[in-house]
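As promised in the previous annual report, we have extended the structural survey to additional targets. Below is the entry for DUF2533 domain-containing protein.
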Amino acid sequence: MTSVHEDISAHSQKQHAHIQSFLELEQKRELAIEAAVAKCEQNEPFTTDEINAITSKMNELARGGIVPLRKHVTNDMVREYVERKQK
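The corresponding C-alpha cell record, generated without further manual editing, is:
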C-alpha cells in the first residue's frame, strides 16, 4: 500500500510533466507562428498547418486540465497581424 505522500508526489510529478510538455509545444507553436508571419511579410506563400497541428496537441493536453486551450490560427489571422504590425 502506498502512502498518501507517495500518491501526492506521483500526482505532482505527472502534473509537472504535463506542464513541461505544454511549454515545449508552446515554444514550437510560437516558432511556427513567427515563420508564417515572416513568409507573409515577404509576400511568400504560407500555411498555418504546422501551427494548428501543434495547437491540436496542446488542446489535447488542455483537456486534462491544468493548461489552457489555444485557438487555431487561420491564414487571415496571420495576414491581419502582419497588416497591423506594418502600420
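The chain has one domain: 4-86. The mean pLDDT is 91. These points will be discussed at the next consortium meeting with the crystallography subgroup.
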